[in-house]
Amino acid sequence: MQQHPTPRVPARTTAPLYRRGRRRSALVAALLATALLTTAAHAPVVRADAPAASPEAADCPSVLAGKARCYTGRDAQGAHYAIAVPTRWNGSLVVHAHGGPDLGEASDPARSTGDLERWAVMVKEGYAWAGSSYRRGGYGTRMAAADTESVRRVFVDRFGRTGRTYLHGQSWGGNVAAKVAETYGRKPGAYDGVLLTNGVLGGGSRGYDHRVDLRVVYQYYCGNHPRPTEPRYPLWQGLRPDSTMTAAGLRSRLRECTGFDADPAARTPLQERNLDDILAVTGIPERALESHLRFATFTFRDIVSTRLGGRNPFSNQGVRYAGSHDDRALNAGVERFAADPAARRDLSFDSDLTGSISLPVLTLHAIDDPTAFVEHESAYRATLRGAGRAHLLVQSFTRESEHSGLSDAEYATSLAALDRWARTGHPPTPRSLASACPAADRAYGAGCFYDPAFTPAPYASRVLPRPGGRHWPAMTAGQERAWSRIDGVGIAP
Predict the structure, then answer these.
(1) DSSP character for 11?
(2) Alpha-carbon gap, residue 219 to 233, rounded angstroms
(3) Residues 241, 246, 252, 254: what is their CA dihedral angle, to the nearest 10 degrees?
(4) Phi (first) and psi of residue 312, to 5 degrees
(5) Where are the alpha helices (DSSP H) in 95-208?
(6) What are the distances in angstroms from CA 81 to CA 46, 92, 371?
(7) CA 483, CA 124: separation in Å to the nearest integer?
C-alpha cells in the first residue's frame, strides 16, 4: 500500500482569546481537573495509553480525489474510523460525530467513510476531518462521545498537534458532540469550538417524548402494532424483545392503517381519518411519519430491552392529547404508563445535557426539519441559559426542509465563522452569517437560505411536556455529579 508523508501542521500563532482570558493558577487548574474527573466518573473512559493500530492509507471518496489523502483504521475500543487530510491543509481539524443511532451490533466501517463523503465540504475548505463509526450500534451517547474523543487522539498520535480542533455533530450526533464538549472539552487544547447541525439537543429523557406519544396514539387508532392476535407487551418497549418484525413489516402495517404513502384519493375514509388524527395529535409531518414510527419501534426496543435491562424510561402520565376528532375518547382509551425512576435517571445521565460548556458553540438548523424539530434549539438555549453559558451560543436558522441535507455553502460559512470566533473572541451574528454566505456559495452553487429574523418557539409548544418537564437543563451539573457516584449509573458501553 502506498505510504504518504505526514502532513506538516502550521503552528498555532494566536491563542483563542476566550481561552487566554480563562487561564488560572496551577492550583485552580488542578481543582478543576479533579471536579471534571468526578463528573465523568461513570462515562466510558478513553485510556490515554490504550494501544491502537495506526491509520492506514485508503482510497478517498471520489469527491475528494486529488484533493486529500485518506486513511481508515480501528481504535482500541473496536470503533472503525475514517480520516482525511487535504493536500492544502490549513492545519486545523474537524472531529465529526454521526447521527442515528444505527442499530447494528458491531462498528460499521461504512458509516465513517460515508460521512466523510457527505461532509467533504469541510475537507474542501482546508480542514482535516476525522469521524468514528462508534464501537457498536445502538443507543449510548456517552459511549459515542468517548469514541469521538478517541478518534481525535488517534489523529493527534498520527499527525501531530493541530492548529485548532472543532467538533461537528449532526442529528443525534449533535447530542453526542455537545456531550463531548461538556465531558472532554475543558481539557486545554483538545477542542476550540463546536458546530451543531440539525441537532437532537433536547437530550434523551425529553427529546423522544413526541415519539412516545406517536407510539401510543398510533396503537389507539390502528390497533395493529401489535395486532389483537399477537402477544401483548407494554408500548413503552417499542417492540417485544423477541419480535422478528422488520422495517418493511412495520411499513406494511402503517400503510394498512393510514394509506400514508398512497395517493389521497386512493385512501379509504377510515385511513384518511386515522392519518388526520395521528398527524394532528402528534404534530409529526406526514413525510416523516414512517421514520418516527421506526424510531419509536426499533430504537425504543434497543433503549429499553438492550440498554436498560427491560426497564421503562418513558412516561405519558399527565399528558392530554388534543387535535383529534374525539379528544375525550382518545384520552380515555390511549395506553398510559409511568417511567421507572432509575431507568429514567440512567437515560438522563447518558444523554441529557447540563449546558456546562467552555467552548463557543454555533448551531445551524433547518426551520422545517421534519426529524429533529427546530424547537430543539429552544431547549438547548434554555439549557445553556440555565447553566449560565448562553453567551457561548450563537444559533442560526435556514429556510430548508431536510434533516440531513443542508447547503454546502452554509457549512463553509459556518466553519469560517466558528474559526474566526475561536481566533478573535468575536462571535458571529445570524445577519453576519447570512451576509457572508453568498461569497462561499460562489464556490459551491448550493444556495444560501439563512433566515436571520427567525426565532424558534419553546420546546413545549411542539412536544407535549410531562409534569415538571418545562425547566432546563433536564439534568443539572449537580445532578450529574451526584448520579456519577452511583455504581453502574447510565448506559454501559
Answers:
(1) P
(2) 12
(3) 50
(4) -100, 115
(5) 109-118, 120-124, 141-159, 172-183
(6) 15, 18, 26
(7) 43
pLDDT of residue 462: 95
**Is 43's pLDDT higher than 80?**
no
Report the alpha-carbon distance of residue 231 to residue 135 in Å, rounded. 33
CA atoms within 13 A on the CB side of 459: 26
pLDDT confidence of residue 44: 43
C-alpha 95/C-alpha 453 separation (Å) is 30
Read off the pLDDT band of 52 (50, 70, 90).
low
In this structure, the number of other CB atoms found within 10 A of the CB of residue 322 comes to: 11
Asked whether 258 and 271 are in contact (CB, 8 A), the reply is yes
* Strands (E) located in 262-356: none
Classified as helix, coil or strand, 288 is helix
Secondary-structure percent of the chain, ordered helix, strand, coil, rounded to 5: 45, 10, 45
**Phi and psi torsions of 57, nearest 5°:** -60, 140
422 closest CA partner among 181, 148, 159: 181
Phi, psi of 168 (to 5 degrees): -130, 130
What's the predicted TM-score (pTM) here?
Answer: 0.89
Q: Tens digits of per-residue pLDDT, 384-415?
A: 999 999 999 999 999 999 888 899 999 999 99
Consecutive H or E run containing 365: strand 361-366
pLDDT value, residue 37: 35
Of 10-14, 55-59, 166-170, 275-279, least confident by mean pLDDT is 10-14
SS (H, E, C) 188-238: CCCCCEEEEECCCCCCCCCCCHHHHHHHHHHHHHHCCCCCCCCCCCCHHHC
Query: Which range among 12-21, 175-184, 262-271, 353-362 shows the weakest confidence by mean pLDDT?
Result: 12-21
Cβ contact 91:163 at 8 Å: yes
Q: CA-to-CA distance for 65 and 68, rounded, in angstroms? A: 7
Interval 278-308: pLDDT, tens: 999 999 999 999 999 999 999 999 999 999 9
| Beta-strand runs (E) in 203-345 | none
Is residue 93 within 8 Å of 152, Cβ to Cβ?
yes
Rg (CA), the chain: 23
- List the end-to-end C-alpha distance of the chain, in Å, as a whole number: 34
Burial of 300 (0-12, 13-18, 19+ CB in 10 A): buried
Query: Residue 54 pLDDT > 90, yes or no?
Result: no
Of 197, 50, 72, nearest to 129 by C-alpha is 72
Cα(327)–Cα(178) distance, integer angstroms: 38
How far is C-alpha 132 from the chain's CA centre? Answer: 14
Give the span between the Cα atoms of 330 and 328, in whole angstroms.
Answer: 5
